[in-house]
Amino acid sequence: MSNIKYETELHDFPNIFSLKGKVVVVTGGSRGLGLHAASGFLQAGASKVYITSRKASACQQACDTLNALPNLSPSARAIPVPADSSKIEGIEYLVKEVGKTTDHVDVLFANAGATWGESFDTHPDSAFAKVMDLNVKSVFNTIRLFAPLLQKNGTIQDPSRVIITASVAGIGIGTLGKQATFGYSASKAAVIHLAKNLAVELGPRHVLVNAIAPGFFPSKMASGLMEISGGVESLSKKNPSQRLGRPEDIAGLVVFLSSRASAHINGATITVDGGEVWARGGMAELKEEPEKAKL
Ligand SMILES: NC(=O)c1ccc[n+]([C@@H]2O[C@H](COP(=O)([O-])OP(=O)(O)OC[C@H]3O[C@@H](n4cnc5c(N)ncnc54)[C@H](OP(=O)(O)O)[C@@H]3O)[C@@H](O)[C@H]2O)c1
């Protein structure tokens, strides 16, 4: 007779998305997607959220905003740690600084990134290298150097998490033409594959690694590209869900990927783009207003 025990009960389901007491590091946390995510982490119960980017004043300002959020638990804190993730010394400094006020990290959101737009014939070597360095090599090194702190509290039942910000540009074709993003697109495809490799390497160490692939979200980085791609209204209309990304879309996804609800998801890439990447071949035109359209 088999001695396999089949579990049939859900454990504490009402708290399945809770991040109560978790320690989180957000790279590129001073604005845009990183700031949206940090806001979600804190409101889901995280006790410490380290915010890092190059500019000290931007990190401090982001933390002031985050610490003033309503509905935070009394001990919840956003903590600024300015550092340049594009340099190995910057990442070493970041890990050392974080390690001064915590003995472990539960969640690393490896989100800092850069882009460059220029046509194929003149696409500069230096820009391609800069984008690949920050978006791929630095993501790898940030995860590698945070691994000891991530492994500290990870268990089979409650593994630590790494979430990498990729992009739909790493799944479908990125922007072409005068502002083509060859390096960016290649870098985002690379980190999607990196997440799969690291999922297998770090899974047995009780650290899960997943990637998210956002479509367009208004941000400092995306605004120029959105403008040359037709602007907010036109891009919204081309999206199957008829809109662009909102802060809650990012916050909800990263909280899910950091919570017990996703404790068996490893090596996945989750798109958060309203289905836009699958509609690039063309989308049926709605003949009626969306709410009146028949199935
Ligand atoms: N917005 C979109 O539509 C979209 C879509 C798909 C993917 N993404 C990805 O989402 C991530 C965040 O982008 P975003 O749109 O939120 O852009 P953003 O608003 O421009 O934010 C970029 C963040 O990265 C930081 N950063 C840049 N270089 C850094 C470095 N060398 N070291 C440390 N931090 C650095 C910036 O702060 P400092 O300038 O102070 O360093 C800032 O906090 C990127 O990986 C991007 O590729 C964005």
From TrEMBL:
Q: Does the keyword Oxidoreductase apply?
A: yes
Q: Does the keyword Oxidoreductase apply?
A: yes
SUPFAM superfamilies reported in the protein's UniProt record: NAD(P)-binding Rossmann-fold domains
Q: Which biological process, per GO, is one annotated for this protein?
A: abscisic acid biosynthetic process
| UniProt entry keywords in alphabetical sequence | NADP, Oxidoreductase
Q: Which InterPro entries match?
A: NAD(P)-bd_dom_sf (IPR036291), Sc_DH/Rdtase_CS (IPR020904), SDR_fam (IPR002347), Sec_Metab_Biosynth_SDR (IPR052178)
A single Gene Ontology molecular function, please?
oxidoreductase activity
Cleavable signal peptide: none
Q: Which domain of life is it from?
A: Eukaryota
Family, per the entry? Belongs to the short-chain dehydrogenases/reductases (SDR) family.
What name does the UniProt record give this protein? Answer: NAD(P)-binding protein
Q: Which organism is it from?
A: Mollisia scopiformis
